[in-house]
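Re-run with default settings, no changes from the original entry. Doing this only to confirm the output is reproducible before filing.
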Amino acid sequence: MAKSPNENPQRQRDQLTGQVSRRLVKWIIGIAITVVVAIALMVGLYVRRALQPLDAESKTKIAVTIPSGASTGDIGTLLEKRGVIQSALIFKFYVKFHNVPSFQAGAYTFTKADTFDDILLALRGGAASDRSIGSVLVREGVTAEEVATSISKLAPKNANLSKAKVMAVLKDDNFFNSLVKQYPKLLTSAQEASDVRYRLEGYLFPATYDVAAKTTAASLITTMVAKTDSVMSPYYATITKRGMTVQQVLTLASLVEREGVDETNRQKIAGVFLNRIDIKMPLQSDISVMYALNTHKTHLTNQDTSVDSPYNLYVNAGYGPGPFDQPSEESIRAVLSPKDRDADYLYFVANLKTGEILYARTLAQHNINTQRFAADNGN
């Protein structure tokens, strides 16, 4: 039987198509393998880089507070955010791979030169020198000098924490400027302030801080500032919207802290202060005069309220140089959410015996209120 004249060409086309298809499949497989290998190499390089210290030469202390109940993921995210590690995800996998059982909550100090093993050792409390020797309680309304006194009580167990060393840190402009770089939203307005006694007054957040045998004054102060930044972060946008600075908010909050005894009255007192600010009327807070005099008094004399100091808000209008103590978050919220501003109150007086506070729009009414409390206030 004779072959069709078209049979061989068709067969040749089929063979050619098959060859092209096989080559195309091989080419696609080759590309896929190359891509997979490239991705694997990139991932490997990323993991290797992430496991290395961010800066092997760095000596800058970075304060990190691990809250109770924090998960491995939470801790990794916190370390990445603070610039201690490159990747929270790699940290999580590293911990899981090494079967690290648990971490201890508390205040830690790291550097960018720390390895993952260094970090895990510290977080597990593996180094005796890093274990807690006690704690420092920063109370609401205390001054920076009072904070230094509280810290110095641990000096017998840690010579780094003498009052002289703590005060030296509080007065160190280079240390302060290094903190500004870490917390620019928090501290820029404090950096720009003039006639300030201590630039970190108001920025040592009231809380309890664990202290280790090797904790330095600088690292402990950094931890306190970090806590303030953490608390203030949700309010930065509101502060900007109000047309205020962090320094101004904390200054008013530090006065409200000492003048008010509950949330409602703190909000109303904040409203009084803001009303006075608006009409350029001195705040006339006794707290400001006592800070200017660096003393505590139940009653101030005319000579006291005339003291020549930028902190004396009896004679100086406005906010003054800066905070007078360490305010609580409640007092900060009061400044940002004042009450009864539309009542136009410009005066208030407190009953020192009962804590009751009376408000007035006029000086005449204020004098009546003051006389009402005269007996209880020892006048």
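Residues 53-127 form a domain with the Dna Ligase; domain 1 fold (CATH 3.30.1490.480). The chain has a mean pLDDT of 87.
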